[in-house]
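Sat 14:20. Reprocessing the chain from the morning session after the first attempt stalled halfway. Input below, unchanged.
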Amino acid sequence: MPVHIYQILHVTGIIMLFMGYGALLARSLASSDNVAVRKLGSITSGIGLLLILIAGFGMISKLGHSFTAPWLIVKMIIWLALGGIIVLINRKPALAKALWWSILALGSIAAVMVYFIRFQG
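Finished this time. Tokens:
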């Protein structure tokens, strides 16, 4: 599969993850127990995480990067952190505002790893 297909899937996964988490965080901030929103946000973010992982590894292989490159290790740690944040969103609604900014920071760090750090090596 061409690398641009992996890139499109990767970005689509990122959009899905942030949309899903945005819905879940908005639900928490509104103090709502809306099950439909929780289900949609959880499914969307879960599929997004899966797309990010599969397309990311596809791109790594296609572009010939080493899986031990420091920027990739940081991105994998960020992926794990983003995957675990859903537990905090659903179980600790009081942390919604802090998680909102934490998720933004993690996404920004991931972008820095690709667009600045990767091209320096």
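The longest helix spans residues 35-63.
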